[in-house]
Amino acid sequence: MAVTAPTTATRPPAAASRTAAAAVTAALLLLVAGLAVVDITQGTAAVGAPEVWKALTGHADPADASVVVASRLPRAAAALLVGAVLGVAGAALQAVSRNVLASPDTLAVNAGSYLALGLTATTGVTLPLYASSGVAFAGGLAAAAVVLGLSGLGTGTVRLVLAGTALTLGLTAVTESLLLLFPRQTQGLYQWNQGSIGQTGFDGVLQMAPIGIAGLAGLLLLARRVDALALGDDAARGLGVPVRATRLIAVVLASLLSTAAVTLAGPIGFVGLCAPALVRPLAARLRAFTRTRASLPVAALTGAALVLGSDVLLRAAVPADTAVAVPTGVVTSLVGAVFLIVMATRAKDTAGAAAADRLRIRSRAVFLTTTAVLVAALIGVTVAAVLLGDSKLLLGDVLNWAQGRAGRTVGFVLDTRVPRVLAALLAGAALALAGTLVQAVTRNPLAEPGSLGVSGGAGLGAVLLVTTVPLAGSWSVAAAAFAGAAVVSALVFGLAARGGFQQNRLVLVGFGAATATTALISLLVILTDPFNATKALTWLSGSTYGRTLPDVAPLAAVLAVGLLVAVQRRTGLDLVSLDEDTPRLLGLGLSRSRLGFLVLSVLLSATAVAAAGTIGFVGLVAPHAARALVGRRHARVVPVSVLLGAILVCTADLVGRTVIAPAQLGAGLMTAMIGTPYFLHLLVRTRR
């Protein structure tokens, strides 16, 4: 069938398109200007619009003028600069990668900058702003290079999000470990990582503005080459465009812009993702915005409007004394998470996130040998975890304690250590079983409770109860964690179920939900106890510190029920993990079975989080390793996965509290450091 070229009747003339584009740009300028004016009039001091006008015209009271000049105007200027450079950076990254989800957040640029600055802070050296910017630039650029290298260019949104999320978790775990180990040298870095546009004077804005201008100018000069990349690599080469060099320069310039924003205000989440996405519908209607040279300034204005609008909305909805403690980055992260979920529900499924595991057949002897080795390893790790720590014990001490004949010192050590060991063992087993169930139901070998937001929802429910009812018991905390996990999982799985748990939709909705829960947890901690960053870090790092036997009881009960159900329903798990048609042909109620397994996985994840905090990657690594060892039959996968999960978390907890004793690192941080390389290895293996 012949394809006719669009006529002038269906395609607006170039002059009309340029006129409409100019009108849209003018409207955005007016919006940004209006938001800036409103932002300047908001704050804790009783300085409203009349006082601001007097200060700008030189007729104000000196105290009012000081507030406006030293705080209000620098804050608005920082919002303008940060929003603009992040909008441009996101637009450039999406253009050169041909991926609508590329941004400083999904490319782990912010996490790389965070780690680089954390490493610098541990040395105790105080750097000037430009030097700090250089350090952050190096870290962010290195992280972006790793993510782009692993995900490839133009190979789908899921792989980019998975690689960026995994690397972000790993780098953040290392940074937060530094914060816990060097609290004095890194003081204030956690609050900085939440992202705030508050400024004391114009010094920071004036120093970062040239970097932003230089990055924007460089991208505008590169605009024609970037436009050529949209035609495809071969077509661009045919036009004489150096494809690799163009991409490299664009990524470097985008990272430079992101670094300027990070250095000035900390990570302001998702602006680089949302701003270009809001410009994209305009480009579909107006030809003028399809060109990079026109779309970059519009993305800059949109980004500035997002940051200013978030700040104005926060200060309008929350009392001024409270709003000043809430970082702008938390608000933009919440907005961005909702935006990402909406995008995910409209995304078309492309190639899966990872190829399904190859069908592996393992003999019974291999299964029995593997199980025996893992049981021996579990016993060894458990004994080592009980005996080792800041105080080393002997087996005789443990026997005496069990018989009630231990001394006061030994008794105190074991009374506190044994519940920790049990919490680590049971949490690891529960998360591994939950991951096994989720991967079977979704038929996605890279799905796990943490990356799908289930663990985050459980953490949010538990933190909400702990911060509002400090004396809540362990069963109450477990119930709150289950409620939070249930709400988030209902959202994630409900949206992903439309169309049969497509991998794109499941991963993207889960990523958005996980981001939103993390932002809400930070918001709760900041509002209830703004100076206790260690409290948030300890919880989010997955620590078993201070656990007692009553804290572990709910987890033990739920794990026992979960194991019983999984073993009894092992054939159903095998069928559900195959396809949509086979279970129905064999008379299995697919929807009912899928819902039951998901509810069980949510319950397991929630109680594990309530007992041991947020621990990531166990639900990914353990089931995947189990299938590699004993095949895909769940009669064998379930016990091996549970054993692997228990060993992994118990080992992580043991290493975290012994290697640097008396200082300690949470098990969640250790599993993130272990799980991130493994996860990235899986992405490399499944790249084709």
Structure description:
This protein folds into two domains: 63-293, ABC transporter involved in vitamin B12 uptake, BtuC (Orthogonal Bundle), CATH 1.10.3470; 366-685, ABC transporter involved in vitamin B12 uptake, BtuC, CATH 1.10.3470. The protein is an all-alpha fold. It is globular, with a radius of gyration of 27 Å. The two termini are 34 Å apart. Residues 1-12 and 350-356 have low confidence and may be disordered. The chain has 29 helices and no strands.
Secondary-structure class? mainly alpha
Q: Any idea what the CATH superfamily of the largest domain is called?
A: ABC transporter involved in vitamin B12 uptake, BtuC
Helix content: over 70%
From the N-terminal CA to the C-terminal CA, the straight-line distance is 34 Å
Provide a brief overview of the structure:
With about 700 residues, the chain is mainly alpha-helical.
